[in-house]
Amino acid sequence: MAIKRIAGKIGGRAALLAPLAFIVVFLIAPLAFAFVMSFWKRVGFQVRPGFSLKAYASFIHGPQHVILYHSLWMAAAATLVSLVIAYAAAYLAAFRLRRSATRVILFMFAAPFFINYIIRDFAWTDLLGRNGPVNEALQWVGLIHEPLSWLMYSDFSVMLGLVASYMPFMVFPIWLALVGIDQRLVEAATMLGARPWKAFVMVTLPLSMPGVFAAVIFGFVGSFGADAVATVMGGTGYQLAGNTISSAMNILNYPLAAAISSVVVLSLLVLMGVWYAVFDIRTFLGRLVR
Predict the structure, then answer these.
(1) In angstroms, rounded to a whole number, what is the distance separating the alpha carbons of residues 252 and 64?
(2) For residues 63 and 221, what is the distance between their CA atoms, to the nearest angstrom?
(3) In this structure, are residues 57 and 63 in contact, taking their beta carbons and an 8 Å threshold?
(4) Is the pLDDT of residue 279 over 80?
(5) With the C-alpha atoms ordered 249, 251, 255, 260, is the resulting torsion angle positive or negative?
(6) Among the residues of the chain, which ranges form H helices?
(7) From 80, 132, 234, 267, which residue has the greatest number of CB atoms within 10 Å?
(8) How far is it, in rounded angstroms, from Cα 229 to Cα 243?
(9) What are the two backbone dihedrals, phi and then psi, of residue 43, each rounded to the nearest 5 degrees?
C-alpha cells in the first residue's frame, strides 16, 4: 500500500510537472529571452549583448512614440466597442435564450476561430472595397452617389477589423460570469421594489465585473499587439505596435522588436495582476468552481 501511495504521489507530480515544463520551455523562456534582447545594442546590421535603453527610448519617446500612442488609442477604442457588443450578446445568451439557442449562439461566436485570421481580414477588404458589395448596396439604395473611400485603408477599417477579430474572445468570459450569478439575488432586488434596469445596475453588472475585466484583457492586449489587421486593412504605411514589430524584424532591428514585444507582454501582465488582485476566481467562474 505504501508503495502504491508513493507511486501515486510521483505520478501526480509528474502529471503536474509536464505541463509546467511545457509552459517554461515554450512560453516563459522565449519571452524572457526577448526581454533580455530588448536591452542589447545594435551595431550596424548586427546585435551585440549589452545593456542599453535605446530601443525603449526609441519606442516611447523617439520616432515611434506616435505609433505607441496611436496603438493605445485604437486598442482602447476597439476594446470599448467590443465590450458593448460582447456584453449584450453574452447577456442574451445567459438570460434571454433557451439552452439550445444559447449553444448555437456560442458556437457562432467560436466559428470564426476555425478560419485563419488573415483570410478573414482579406474578406473584409473585398466587402468594403470601392467596388465591393457594401459600396454597391449603398449606391443602389441611393444613400451615396459615389463609393466611400474611407471604408478601407483607414482608422475605421482597422477599428472594424480589430472588433471583428477580438470581440468573440470577449463573449465567453462575460457569459461565464453571468451564468454564475445566483438569480435569487436578482429576484430579491426585484421583490424589494427595484425595476429591472436598476436590478441590473445594482446586482447583475457588479457581479459580472470579473468576467468583464477578463474580457477587457483579451480585447485590449489582442488589439494592442495586432499585426495582420493593421497591415491588411490599414494599407501601406499604417502602423500599429504589432506590425511595427514585423517592420523592425525586417530591418534586423531585433532590440526594437523585442522592446515593443516586451511592452505588449508587460501590459498583459499588469492587467492580469490587477484582475488577480481585485477579483476572486470563484466570482469569475461562479458555480463552476467551489
Answers:
(1) 16
(2) 23
(3) no
(4) no
(5) negative
(6) 2-23, 29-37, 54-60, 65-91, 99-110, 117-128, 133-140, 155-179, 183-191, 196-199, 205-207, 209-224, 228-234, 241-250, 254-278, 281-285
(7) 234
(8) 9
(9) -120, 105
Q: Count CB-CB contacts under 10 A for residue 62.
A: 14
CATH of 64-288, picked from 1.20.1250.20, 3.20.20.10, 3.30.1480.10, 1.10.3720.10, is: 1.10.3720.10
DSSP 47: E
Rounded mean pLDDT, 228-234: 89
Mean pLDDT over residues 239-253, rounded?
Answer: 85
Residue 11 has pLDDT above 60, yes or no: no
Would you say residue 73 has pLDDT above 80? yes
Domain boundaries, the chain: 64-288
Q: What local confidence, expressed as pLDDT, does residue 98 receive? A: 86
Task: Tell me the Ramachandran region of residue 145: left when phi exceeds 0, alpha when psi lies from -120 to 50, beta otherwise.
Answer: alpha
Is residue 219 a contact partner of residue 268, using CB atoms and an 8 Å limit? no
**pTM (two decimals):** 0.84
180 and 281 Cβ atoms separated by less than 8 Å: no
